[in-house]
Amino acid sequence: PENESKRAPMSCHCLGKDSPKERSACVGEAGSITSDPQDRMKEKDESHSKLATELRNQKEFLRRTVEHQKAVISRTEASKQRLVGVNEDLIMKLRETEQTRIMNEGTIDNLKQKLARSENDTETLRNELKSAQELVAN
Length: 138
Fold this sequence. Notes:
Radius of gyration: 47 Å
Shape: rod-shaped
Oligomer: single chain
Distance between the termini: 149 Å
Number of strands: 0
Helix content: over 70%
Strand content: under 5%
Largest sheet: none
Number of helices: 2
Structural class: mainly alpha
């Protein structure tokens, strides 16, 4: 209580400490109990300078992180667009392949019909030849 008036005020970052022991240690780092006003001002300036430097460093880190994330998003979007294009090409080729398959099935059916007619014609010709041979033999 007597020394309270002589104690250096806590810097703003010391107030965020959870326990009295941590706050006490923090205040001890920030300044001594009986420092004169010029020393306390110098310590405050140094503390604020350190905090400002830390803040600038954090801002720069966040800026670089955001730039990196934007670049990753950009690359991901470009990859997505390429994949969409490839997918559209594959769908088109699949449709073309399906159309070709249907046409081939039609061609196969036509060829089967022609083959059946040809086999029928061949059988008819055999029968006619056989009949003709029988007529000639008689």
